[in-house]
Amino acid sequence: MLLAAGFASIRPSSPGDGTAIVVAARDLDIGVVLAAADLSLQAVADPPDGAVRASNGGTAGTVGRTLASPVRRGEILTDVRLLGQAGPRAGPGRVAVPARLGDADVVELLRPGMHVALVSVPRDGTAPARSFTDDAVVLSVADAATGALSAQNQGRIVVFAVPSAAADAVAAAGLTGAIALRFH
User: Fold this and answer.
1) Is 179 found in the same domain as 101?
2) How do residues 41-67 score in pLDDT, each as one tens digit?
3) What value, to the nearest 5°, has the Cα angle with vertex 64 and ends 148 and 22?
4) pLDDT number for residue 35
5) Whether residue 66 is found in the same domain as residue 119
6) Is the Cα torsion angle 109, 113, 115, 118 positive or negative in sign?
7) Are 67 and 38 in contact (CB under 8 A)?
8) CB-based contacts of 145: which residues, under 8 Å, 6+ apart?
9) Lowest mean pLDDT across 1-15, 21-35, 43-57, 108-122
10) Cβ(27)–Cβ(71) below 8 Å
11) What distances in angstroms separate CA 110 from CA 45, 64, 141, one per listed residue?
């Protein structure tokens, strides 16, 4: 009888056991816009804080959201793995700052979650370049298909999470496109 009780305690949970949460159906890269095929449901007895719960018995509430970090197949999706509906979150001690880069082609290299250094690039060449921050995190990149070009055709907007102390300088330089990047 003890043996039967032991086997019963280690049996896999059935779909009806626990709370239905959303998990990755396959390995996914940062910045992926989630589709139904990317997601599956799993019953978990004690889901972690922030776990994305199934909505109306499915994944529809998660489809169309953007991943803020990569995930592995079977990994539980949590609220911090998804970009917020109201926009990207900068994180503690940081500010989200939109900026236009001096070289618009560099934007094609950027993906949400990348860490880069932001450098001032004086347009007139009278001052040396200086670093705003060595740890800016790309939060989002304007989609070229939406026509997110300025009237001066200076390029797409990138939103960075920067340390609070650097935010004003980055914001000011971002208006003129006087920002360059260093990749780590």
Assistant:
1) yes
2) 999 999 999 999 988 878 888 998 888
3) 150
4) 93
5) no
6) positive
7) no
8) none
9) 1-15
10) yes
11) 38, 20, 7
**H or E element in which residue 162 lies:** strand 157-163
Tokens of residue 102, six digits: 């001096």
Residue 10 lies in a domain: no
Question: Is the same domain home to 141 and 179?
Answer: yes
* pLDDT tens-digit readout, 145-175: 544 444 444 567 898 989 999 999 999 888 8
Which structural domain range is residue 172 located in?
94-183
Same domain? For 176 and 98 the reply is: yes
Residues 101 and 77 in one domain: no
**pLDDT score for 10:** 42
Report yes or no: 30 and 67 within 8 Å, Cβ to Cβ: yes
Do 159 and 88 form a contact (C-beta atoms < 8 A)?
yes
Q: What pLDDT score does 3 carry?
A: 45
**Bridge partner residues of 163 (DSSP):** 94
